[in-house]
TrEMBL record:
Record keywords: DNA-binding
GO molecular function: DNA-binding transcription factor activity; transcription cis-regulatory region binding
Record's protein name: TetR family transcriptional regulator
Domain HTH tetR-type: 14-74
Species annotation: Bradyrhizobium zhengyangense
Entry annotated with the keyword DNA-binding: yes
Length: 228
């Protein structure tokens, strides 16, 4: 007879996998990707190291899945914020603001996902992560162009440029210090969102209005407050 896992067994296995990923995420948020090691992650997840290897046969697979999970969460947040906006320009502003807030809310984790040197190859996961988020930003730019709110442009290239600018400004080597302070974080989010909107062709007065609109949204205020 072929053994079939019961619903409870499947649920328990999924919960254990989630616990391991949550432990890896906590480790990366606290100490960067260098802190994502099998034994310490196992301790955090309250499982044996061998159990971690059953789910993730190598550290590269564990970190790659961590990158994918964090990116999926961010992408879902971007879509929720943009879909709730009243129009395509507001949706673009919401998407950019969400990227900025998520990047700043856990800067060490964001840097680890993006570019921190890792002793295993996770380049494919990193590239897939950036491609998906850039694609979402491009879709929002494209919607605003088709609605006549923005001039015609290469939306894929514009989205890539915006995403690179956001990341470099907020977590790159030249990013300002003390962005953990809620007021400075809010100012930084407003600055980069305004820059992004101007860059794709939103007139200054309209861009400023969209930035103020985003700052007043409950979700944005909650995220900024949580980062403090």
């Amino acid at each position: 007879m072929v053994y079939r896992r019961t619903h409870q067994v499947v649920k328990r296995l999924a919960a254990r996998r989630s616990a391991i990923l949550a432990a890896a995420r906590e480790a990366a948020a606290e100490g960067g990707m260098a802190a994502v090691q099998i034994a310490p992650v196992a301790v955090r997840a309250n499982v044996a190291a061998g159990t971690v290897y059953r789910y993730f046969p190598s550290k590269a697979e564990l970190i790659s899945e961590l990158i994918s999970e964090v990116s999926r969460d961010e992408l879902a947040a971007i879509r929720r914020a943009a879909d709730a906006a009243p129009g395509p320009s507001s949706a673009l502003a919401a998407a950019v603001t969400t990227v900025a807030v998520h990047t700043l809310s856990q800067r060490r984790l964001a840097w680890g996902i993006l570019a921190e040197p890792v002793d295993v190859d996770v380049s494919a996961s990193r590239l897939a992560s950036r491609r998906e988020i850039a694609g979402e930003i491009a879709a929002r730019i494209d919607a605003a162009v088709r609605a006549g709110h923005l001039p015609a442009q290469d939306t894929a290239l514009a989205a890539t440029a915006l995403l690179g600018a956001l990341h470099e400004a907020l977590v790159g080597p030249l990013a300002p210090d003390n962005l953990e302070d809620p007021a400075k974080m809010r100012d930084a989010v407003q600055t980069v969102t305004l820059l992004a909107l101007r860059a794709v062709g939103v007139m200054d007065a309209r861009a400023r209005g969209l930035v103020v609109q985003q700052t007043l949204l409950p979700t944005t205020k909650a995220l900024v407050g949580a980062a403090g």
